[in-house]
Design goal:
The chain is an alpha/beta fold. It has 11 helices and 10 strands. The protein has 2 domains: about 60 residues, Chemotaxis Receptor Methyltransferase Cher, domain 1; about 200 residues, 3-Layer(aba) Sandwich (Rossmann fold), CATH 3.40.50. α10 links the parallel β7 and β8.
């Protein structure tokens, strides 16, 4: 007997997947923690279901259990899973006190001295860890280029990294909705951003001068592979909130290992390194300078 009300030739869409069992969710918890250092609390089960269900439908209605086994065995699928679970919310000039510190104190001091104080002369290296869709590294590019002009010999290099390959591709385009312009001070907007016309109307793009300062790379803070050298400024804001105490400690140690002895580490407004054991001193809330390992061990 044929089914009623089904149009001939209509595609059969995959059903909504059944939510994972507690055992399956525990498997996702272990996988994500092992790969990214991110702990999915039980409260995050709905987030997992919401963000992974689309991929299951794309794969023809795969179950959560089958997809877990696929992600365990296939590195590319693990990357897709992590992409789906990452949250990306960011703005230009987010947490403005950090940029005020750079503009009022740090960069004028470097410019007056003629170097960064690290023995590298006028070469400035910056790491934006957890760069999301690019607003943070391009904010840094605007501020640094404005205060440290190329004609004075300042060589600025900004490394923008993220765990998500999908969001890195968006960041590489350096293209945003034009309403994002409201987040950028007028003098920076006029100097460094291009307004889209024609097919790009309603969008804005970073100019070629800014784009030449930023390069992008996938980096997992949980293992830190692929990074070399030290940076004068490290921005890792609103990333550590997703880590438990152990993975946070590992990530911070990796950040500090890539921070120059005279550099600065910037964290998010709800993150801190207060208490003994951290080899840093507080410059202002959520901004830290490294201390030697020996001094940290004495605390």
């Amino acid at each position: 007997m044929s089914e009623p009300n089904r149009e001939q030739g209509a595609p059969v869409l995959p059903r909504e997947p059944v939510p994972p069992t507690e055992r399956e969710f525990a498997g996702y918890q272990r996988l994500v923690y092992r790969e990214a250092g991110i702990w999915l609390s039980p409260a995050k089960k709905a987030l997992l279901v919401g963000r992974v269900s689309r991929r299951l439908r794309e794969l023809g209605g795969l179950s959560f259990g089958a997809y877990l086994r696929l992600a365990e065995d296939d590195e590319a699928e693990r990357v897709r899973l992590l992409d789906a679970l990452c949250t990306h919310e960011t703005h230009f000039f987010r947490e403005p006190r950090h940029f005020e510190l750079l503009e009022r104190e740090v960069l004028p001091r470097w410019r007056a001295r003629g170097d960064t104080g690290t023995g590298e002369g006028r070469r400035v290296r910056v790491w934006s860890a957890g760069c999301s869709s690019g607003e943070e590294p391009f904010t840094l590019a605007m501020v640094l280029r404005h205060h440290l002009p190329a004609e004075e010999g300042w060589d600025i290099q900004i490394l923008a990294t993220d765990l998500s390959t999908r969001v890195l591709e968006r960041a590489r385009q350096a293209l945003w909705p034009v309403d994002k312009a409201e987040e950028i001070p007028r003098h920076y907007l006029r100097a460094y951003m291009l307004r889209g016309v024609g097919s790009q109307e309603g969008k804005m793009k970073a100019g070629p001068e800014l784009r030449s300062l930023v390069r992008f790379q996938r980096v997992n803070l949980n293992d830190g592979q692929g990074l070399m050298g030290r940076f004068d400024l490290v921005f890792c804001r609103n990333v550590l909130i997703y880590f438990d105490a152990a993975s946070k400690a590992r990530a911070v140690e990796r950040l500090l290992n890539h921070l120059s002895p005279h550099g600065l580490l910037f964290l998010g407004h709800s993150e801190s390194l207060s208490g003994p054991g951290w080899r840093v001193r507080t410059v202002m809330p959520t901004v830290y300078a490294p201390r030697p390992r020996e001094a940290a061990r004495r605390d």
